[in-house]
Amino acid sequence: MPSDTPQPAIVLVRPQMGENIGAAARAMWNFGLDRMRIVAPRDGWPNPKAVAMSSGAGRLLDEAQLCADLPEALADCTYVFATTARQRGLTKPVYSPEAAMKLAAEKIAAGEKVAVLFGPERAGLENDDIAKANAIISVPVNPLYASLNLGQCVLLNSYEWMRQSADIVHETTDLGRGDWATGIEVEKLVEHYEERLDEAGFFYPPEKEESMKTNLRNLWSRMRMTRADVQMMHGVMRQMVRWKDRSSK
Questions:
Q1: Which residue stretches of 31-175 are H helix?
Q2: Euclidean distance between CA atoms 249 and 231, whole angstroms
């Protein structure tokens, strides 16, 4: 059974190749979507090529709703988006995938049932299909090559759906087994380097000593370090001092 997670229905209208249906299922499941509706597939249904291409998302194909025509696929829907890369001469609001999925999330949260239409691979949705939609999704692509594979188009919109409906961590740092260095640990490292550099005569001439130390501290602050980094930098300086002492004997 499809999950209980509120989400739009992905409607493949007259898809031609089983491989592309499987790729669409895989793209959907990558981003937590599992409600597929298939309208009049050219090569019949079920399709073993779709299963082979789905790569673990076969459940979506098993549970897909097979529809004879588009009105059947949209019978329970209250708001419908149609994806197209071409101007169709129809007066409808046109959204980017990001804006469309934001609107879809709002409507679904309000209890509506939303569908997103994807056309056949050769020429996309026909005007009669688009006329049944409330709005258009247009992907900003290279105008000299606007053709998107069916699976790619489903993937792009599914990704935007997840961005609007889930808590996305946009940046993170994998610390492995370590922890960030604390202020006191960094301070001790700075002091270690300042002492050794001072002994080596680095801070010269004397009137520039304070500004040189400030610049050095600023460098350390730009290098956010883990405890392991701090320990390694202490070790680097200790080894350099030992080498200098040995070479001077």
A1: 48-54, 58-63, 70-73, 97-109, 127-130, 150-165
A2: 28
Taking a C-beta distance cutoff of 8 angstroms, is the pair 181, 230 a contact? yes
Task: Provide mean pLDDT across the span 35-63.
Answer: 93
3-class state of residue 249 by DSSP:
coil
Strand 114-118, strand 65-67: pairing: unpaired
Q: How far apart are CA 107 and CA 166, in angstroms?
A: 15
Q: What DSSP element (H or E) covers 111?
A: none
Tokens of 212: 């040189």
CA distance 168 to 145: 31
- Its CATH class, for the domain covering 9-165, is alpha beta
* Domain residue ranges in the chain: 9-165, 183-247
Which amino acid type is present at position 132? K
Helix (H) or strand (E) holding 116: strand 114-118
Q: Closest Cα to residue 112, out of 89, 80, 84, 78? A: 78
Q: Give the integer Cα–Cα distance in Å for 102 and 185.
A: 45
| 38's tokens | 């298939």
Nearest 5°: the CA angle 29, 31, 33 is 55
Asked if 151 and 24 touch (Cβ cutoff 8 Å), the reply is yes
Element spanning 248, H or E = none
Beta bridge partners of 180: 226
pLDDT score for 217 = 86
Q: What is the pLDDT of residues 163-181, one digit of tens each?
A: 987 665 666 666 666 788 8
Bridge partners for 53 per DSSP: none
